[in-house]
From TrEMBL:
GO terms for molecular function: copper ion binding. It comes from Eubucco bourcierii. The gene is Cuta. Residues 1-17 form the signal peptide. GO terms for biological process: response to metal ion. Belongs to the CutA family. Homotrimer. The keyword Lipid metabolism does not apply. SUPFAM superfamilies: GlnB-like (SSF54913). It holds the Pfam family CutA1. Keywords: Signal. The keyword Signal applies. This is CUTA protein.
Length: 136
């Protein structure tokens, strides 16, 4: 029982130790923040979704990238369209909530909502993300 409990507690204890180390040293823990990619049909939808994300404080920043050509398979057919891409900078811990919220307001049946952890970056920028997005 003690071994099982120890194994179950390991991720929690490791996370707490990393947070304490980060707080003491001021160093960034790789993966604490993420960039989410969200595709949108047009610029107006992209702006509406970006504003909604910001209003809910689910991100520190959302970039709206210009129109790009997209090729994809949909229901067995090769499709071609143009899309606007959102780059959303946020806490990794907020990705689940962000994804659920965007799916609830996005007009696509299956919107693209994927994320990548931020490995390293400008420490002041990463601290700004931390300060801009409330904890869970």
């Amino acid at each position: 029982e003690v071994v099982i409990l120890s194994l179950l507690m390991y991720p929690v204890l490791k996370s707490l130790a990393l947070q304490l180390h980060s707080a003491v040293t001021g160093s960034y823990i790789s993966g604490t923040h993420s960039i989410a990619f969200i595709n949108c049909l047009n610029e107006q939808i992209a702006k509406d979704i970006a504003r909604a994300i910001m209003d809910k404080k689910l991100a520190a920043c959302v970039n709206i990238l210009p129109k790009s050509s997209t090729l994809y398979f949909w229901k067995g057919e090769l499709e071609e369209s143009t899309e606007i891409l959102l780059l959303v900078k946020t806490r990794t811990s907020k990705i689940g909530e962000l994804s659920n919220y965007v799916r609830s307001i996005h007009p696509f049946e299956i919107p693209e909502i994927i994320s990548l952890p931020i490995d390293q970056g400008n420490p002041l920028y990463l601290k700004w993300i931390e300060e801009s997005v409330p904890r869970d």
